[in-house]
Amino acid sequence: MQKEKVWDKLSTDTEERMNAANELFSDRKVVPSQNGVALLEAVIRAGDRINLEGNNQKQADFLAECLGSCDSEKINNLHMVQSAVPLPIHLDIFDKGIAKKLDFAYGGPMAAKVAEFLREGKLELGAIHTYLELFARYFMDLTPRVSLICAYEGDKDGNLYTGFNTEDTPVIAEATKFRQGIVIAQVNKLVDKVQRVDIPGEWVDAVIESPKPFYLEPLFTRDPANITDTQVLMGMMALKGIYGEYGVQRLNHGIGFFTAAIELLLPTYGNELGLKGKICKHFALNPHPTMIPAIEDGWVESIHSFGGELGMQKYCEARPDIFFIGPDGSMRSNRAYSQTAGHYATDMFIGGTLQIDKYGNSSTATASRVAGFGGAPNMGCDAKGRRHVTDSWLKCGAEFEDQAALLGDMPRGKRLVVQMQETFKEKMDPSFVEKLDAWNLAKNANLDLAPVMIYSDDLTHIVTEEGIAYLAKCRGLEERMAAIRGVAGYTEVGLSADPKETKTLRERGIVKTPEDLGIDRSRANRSMLAAKSVKDLVDCSGGLYEPPARFVNW
Amino acid sequence: MQKEKVWDKLSTDTEERMNAANELFSDRKVVPSQNGVALLEAVIRAGDRINLEGNNQKQADFLAECLGSCDSEKINNLHMVQSAVPLPIHLDIFDKGIAKKLDFAYGGPMAAKVAEFLREGKLELGAIHTYLELFARYFMDLTPRVSLICAYEGDKDGNLYTGFNTEDTPVIAEATKFRQGIVIAQVNKLVDKVQRVDIPGEWVDAVIESPKPFYLEPLFTRDPANITDTQVLMGMMALKGIYGEYGVQRLNHGIGFFTAAIELLLPTYGNELGLKGKICKHFALNPHPTMIPAIEDGWVESIHSFGGELGMQKYCEARPDIFFIGPDGSMRSNRAYSQTAGHYATDMFIGGTLQIDKYGNSSTATASRVAGFGGAPNMGCDAKGRRHVTDSWLKCGAEFEDQAALLGDMPRGKRLVVQMQETFKEKMDPSFVEKLDAWNLAKNANLDLAPVMIYSDDLTHIVTEEGIAYLAKCRGLEERMAAIRGVAGYTEVGLSADPKETKTLRERGIVKTPEDLGIDRSRANRSMLAAKSVKDLVDCSGGLYEPPARFVNW
Question: What is stated about pH in the biophysicochemical properties (chains A, B)?
Fold first, then answer.
């Protein structure tokens, strides 16, 4: 027989750590903010796997500062597993040697710094994930030992109210606490009774009222004033040639001016095309201010959100038939569930990118920026586990020419995955390239694979100002490449197009120009937008939308 | 300007319904069980979308009986959205005209009845989903109006303890309650204070103590006494030729004797191959009793579970370093998160099927059974949104011959998706067929597509008693079909194999027989199993495993 085994090392260790922090508590689970650093130094060990909550919106910024102030002689070589690293402090923690390894999903403004630290050996990269994939690993091989989360309110028993910006908190807390880990929450306000229990108190070990409210980034706010005529044209093409053509009822919209334009075209051009009630009924979507006119015009039946959006809280609360509102009257977002909906329950993903290669692989990575792709790969892929049928999914599968080579005579649907991009971006950088810059990043950052946001075999349509390429209809890779060249304009890739070949593709409906789609270019301008400014959005909302100061110029 | 719009129809309607039920409550949120039918008649309206909790394990059976006892003159044409329909009452509800439409994931023992009702027009099928996909739609276009859920304990404020069998409850409750819906819970025991808050009281509208504990099915218990020598042989092949070959550390095991055999070979053959610490470290897995010897032998680092398994509760609680155990000392399962882990964080899915066609598409559907596939499509597919790299994923992608036709020169990994099946099943039904019976089901049940569990392009390996077919290594569909023929034995598909072609495939390592793998057939027998009976499993667990009576014969 084997020697007696110990099966509760984790809980014993947790108990020891919590005991070491005992005197830092002022009342039940409450720790005064001035004890924040001491608390982390008591419960964190060198080499620990640590989650620091923070996505592209809410940030456990006070706890991040506390972690950054820990003594790196004691606390070092941490393995950070966290959705995003958008704040300077996130990288400072590596700079100080407190953390060493990073598994994440989104770099945001710190993407260049991540690449720099990788080169300098200050940071070791685990992997770049899509959000839901990272959450998945919290229950597999990347469970956090200690998690630093954030909430609006907390009480002395640890109950948390995360409300509008619930975002990643439930999935982090559950994975950590149920593997004997330690969960520490910063809260904007310590209260006697939380407005609503979003996280049960038993899941939380310590609550700290932070000196100021957590940082929130209005990442999904696009000022209609900045939408260009070209974006209007492309939006009209997408609406008629894809949304209408496939009858897309359930979808996600990413960040960006292209989809903002589409949102603002629904009550105008969308109505003109007679599409209300036929498309855009259900969304997995952050509460985009540019959705207000379409919602007010009765287009939308439901929206489930990954996170909140600064300024949109009151508007969402006043539209409980549309958004997911709790019994207390405030919204609850949930990134894990919304990403799940985005993966399995939507018929289309549409968004922008930085570069598309001649095969149709696309990426926002550049040679010197470890950007990460957030939720895009999860929604911008063909969800192969999907089994339910919708008209648009079935239609795209039916026209997918290469399916027989994969499945024999077995039919299957296909999700619409659309990339919208002008052929040239600012500074005249071409969007279509022979080889993605991601290859150079892979070399520079010593990655196993070039970071691709959307792979060619998942991509079904490209929309540029030149036209739409219907890639699923192509026979084989060569034809797909020809279709891409056909909409790539004056880029190197586009210039290699054979006009005769493009003409044939147009005749077969694989490439469609605005004219092929019956769109009058002279109408494609900003006058088509249902709102032309942030002020228009506020008015349309009846004053419920409260834009952040940086968007207010009246 | 438009006329004044109403944006709170849902909450107004909910309030009206709850008011109608007002006098049925005895104390705060408590409704006596004899008022169960009256409660449902008060809060449910004809045509409602209703969730009735019940997966392949725990069942809200009392509430199902209550629903089945409602007056079909009042309550009819319900649209049921529920994970599974394994109980007779689930179909009775349709028989009585109370429900009309069904969206689900798993039929289990009622699969034939579902097909029958479809033919007779008693039931209209929305779609067959994989679990996570159905959950996804709860946040998109299939949000329940009323959900009938179940828990071990509930208190007067609606707080629920769902513990070991938390399973689907959190995702159902959140989707329903936050879209202004009504959540009714049956509990085994009404208590003053629940052991642990799994569902906050505010998410629950009514709690009913059911007359008897909810039904639990020990679906994942396999008696080692019933494992055959052939299953041992195939298990040895899989361990050496796939688990060991690819170094599979993170995985799921489905239901069945093939994977039960593998679990029981880890402490014997697995150790002999020197694989401990190199494979099978992290699982998304129900607490299979046949995992006990491998856990005790130190193979496993973590297991996150979809649900509980009858008899395994004490064992799991005594192994908190392995399972996900809460602060109260009891386990919390979670199907939504475990399926997410199964989709995005595992390197391999392995399981059995009923039929594989000549192209490699497989299904458990037959002409007269609407079976559904539970979690299999979610885990038995290539997760295209995945971006993190592991050795096994990278290796399978590198040997995937057809990748260049899809992606050009862009490399990508590939998940291992393995089907294990003897070439003939009981009654000598061939496992390999020209055309799946699923085609006939599609015709009989008027489905848009034949229900396929795993599509050919996701399948990477087939293991039969003849050998392993390494499908990802094949060049094109024709060669993949030849490899399938090469392991299909004396089935019609297998008999059409060209021996010369199979020989070439063996030389190229695309087909490997036990001899090619260096496995001595004479050793492939039950003596290799680490436990040969349920009694052995109990002993190995130190008496912690308490098997259900039907498995106890000593």
Answer: Optimum pH is 5.5.
